[in-house]
Amino acid sequence: AAGVSLPVACCIASNLVMGSGFLSLPYAFARGGLALAPVVVALIGGMMMLACSWEAEAMARAEALEVRALRRGGATVPSPARLPTTGSKAPAISNRTFEVCELCGIFGGPILEAGYSIVFLVYYGATLWAYAFVFAE
């Protein structure tokens, strides 16, 4: 079997590890043009920053719910719909971190948490299969 050359395998592995398709950016710039490509990259970067700030806000809100539940003697973080709103200060970001799966469980319930877990497992299964496919030869 012919297989893949070492430089090509290294490029494919780097592309899989980075996950951003950075090896295809020069091709995309060449095909899209020097006017459109930077605009699209900036737009995608802005959407990524927006998603990052939304996730940070969700973590701050989840921590506020956790603190409120612990002060009331609860063992777990209840759903936000079950807690009454008060005039307390706005949630703030601290050192407490939440996994995305936890956030799905807190704000979306067990069905969303299970759905996210399944999608996550399928994605990583496909990634591992891709690694095995590339390096099997």
Characterization of this structure:
It is a single chain. α1 (6-18) runs antiparallel to α3 and α2 (25-71) runs antiparallel to α3 (100-135). 70% of the residues lie in helices and 0% in strands. The protein is mainly α and 137 residues long. The model is unreliable at 81-85 (pLDDT under 50). 5% of the residues are buried. The radius of gyration is 21 Å and the shape is flat. The chain is built from three helices and no strands. It starts with 5 loop residues before the first helix and ends with a helix.
In short:
The chain has 137 residues and is mainly alpha-helical.
**So what's the overall shape?**
flat
**Helicity level, as a percent range?**
over 70%
Biggest sheet, open or closed, and with what strands and sense?
none
Quaternary structure type? single chain
Between the first and last Cα atoms, what is the distance in angstroms?
Answer: 8 Å
Helix tally equals 3
Instruction: Encode the helix/strand succession as letters.
Output: HHH
Rounded Rg: 21 Å
The SS-based structural class is: mainly alpha
**Strand content range:** under 5%
* Strand runs, count: 0
User: What is the mean predicted local confidence, pLDDT?
Assistant: 80
Could you name the ranges where pLDDT drops below 50 across 5 or more consecutive residues?
Answer: 81-85
Topology (SSEs and partners):
Blueprint: H1 6-18, H2 25-71, H3 100-135
Helix pairs in contact: 1-3, 2-3
